[in-house]
Every structure is written in structure tokens, then in C-alpha cells.
Design brief:
This protein is mostly beta strands. Helix content is 0%, strand content 58%. It contains no helices and 18 strands. The strands form five sheets. It has a four-stranded antiparallel β-sheet, with no helix packed on it. Strands 7-8-9-10 form a four-stranded antiparallel β-sheet, with no helix packed on it. The chain has a four-stranded antiparallel β-sheet with strand order 11-12-13-14, with no helix packed on it. β7 and β8 form a beta hairpin. The radius of gyration is 16 Å and the shape is globular.
């Protein structure tokens, strides 16, 4: 909430340096696959890319109309996906530093986004009680799961098929993608 990102040496339990640049709280962080950069999403409606070696901000992405709640990066490191309180998911080209397209379909805040390894699929969790599986190549939802309350978070297991989703109610759902030819038209829990 102090608008900063602190980088730590976890082996020696020492803070190395601090990134400053957001004007509101930082909600989400992810490292690029090469480990050279981190990407942050903030309540200030921006996404920032930071260079860890040079210890500075590289660029800022703008386009969301409200808080950026979660960020994810595809395994190849070329695309960034952001989830926002504005009910949208945006896909960005990191090399060109621009938005490629926006996904709409949630009826409330999108709280979490996860890229499924080795695919064009992402999972989003929303306060509208749904978990959605999106095919980025087709720009559409290919599977839905509805919980009893808002879904705050989601994660995918290393197998790329098992999903965990946490509800506001305290329930945790474990789902498995089926029909592996397209990696899923159903989420079964």
C-alpha cells in the first residue's frame, strides 16, 4: 500500500533496493521468464515494467479505467495479460509496448489472471462469481465455472490441467480441464 516495490535477497533476508513510481498501491507483481524484469499492476490504473539489473523503470502501460488487480506473462515472455476492476482483461505486446486487444465478459471486477503454460489459454477469476477459461487466439471464453460467491484468486498446477480457485466465502475449488485436444471446453470440479 506504500506504492513501492521492494527487492529482497531471500537467502540473506536483506532488502536490496526499492522501486518507486506508482502513485497508488501495488496489487500484483510477476517476473518475466528470463528473470531480467518484473511487471507490476497498480491501483493507479497502470502497469509498469522494471529492469532488475539497471534498477529502474523501463516503461508504463496505460489503458485500464480502474485498478489493475493482477498481471500474468505468457511463457515466451512476449505477451502480458492484465485483469482489472474495470471488468476487463487486456492483452499487451511487451516488445511493442502496446495493447493488442481487450477481452470483456465478466460482470464485475476481474481479480486474478493466470496464463496456462504452453498454450494460448488464460484463466480469470472475478467478483461476479465466475472463473473463465479464455482462448487468446480466438479471443473468446471456452469454459466457465460458477461459484457461490466472488472468486478472488486462481492458480494453475504445473500439469497445466489442474486449477485451484479461491472464493470470498472461504471455499477452494479444484478443477480439471478436460478434452485435452483443445485443452478444454469444460471445467469440472
Amino acid at each position: 500500500k506504500d506504492k513501492t516495490i521492494k527487492v529482497w535477497d531471500v537467502i540473506n533476508c536483506q532488502q536490496l533496493f526499492t522501486f518507486k513510481g506508482h502513485t497508488d498501491e501495488v496489487n500484483s507483481l510477476i517476473s518475466t521468464p528470463d528473470g531480467k524484469h518484473i511487471v507490476s499492476g497498480s491501483k493507479d490504473k497502470t502497469i509498469k515494467v522494471w529492469n532488475l539489473e539497471k534498477r529502474k523503470e523501463v516503461f508504463t502501460l496505460t489503458g485500464h479505467e480502474d485498478s489493475v488487480n493482477s498481471v500474468a506473462i505468457t511463457k515466451d515472455g512476449k505477451r502480458l495479460i492484465s485483469a482489472s476492476f474495470d471488468k476487463t482483461i487486456k492483452v499487451w505486446n511487451l516488445e511493442k509496448r502496446k495493447e493488442v486487444f481487450t477481452l470483456t465478459g465478466h460482470g464485475d471486477s476481474v481479480n486474478s489472471i493466470v496464463a496456462i503454460p504452453n498454450s494460448n489459454l488464460v484463466i480469470s477469476a472475478s467478483s461476479d462469481n465466475t472463473l473463465k477459461l479464455w482462448d487468446l487466439s480466438q479471443k473468446e471464453v471456452i469454459a466457465n465455472f460458477t461459484g457461490e460467491s466472488g472468486i478472488n484468486c486462481c492458480a494453475v498446477a504445473p500439469d497445466g490441467l489442474t486449477i485451484a480457485a479461491g472464493e470470498v466465502s472461504g471455499k477452494v475449488h479444484f478443477l480439471r480441464l478436460e478434452n485435452s485436444s483443445g485443452l478444454g471446453s469444460e471445467c469440472n470440479g
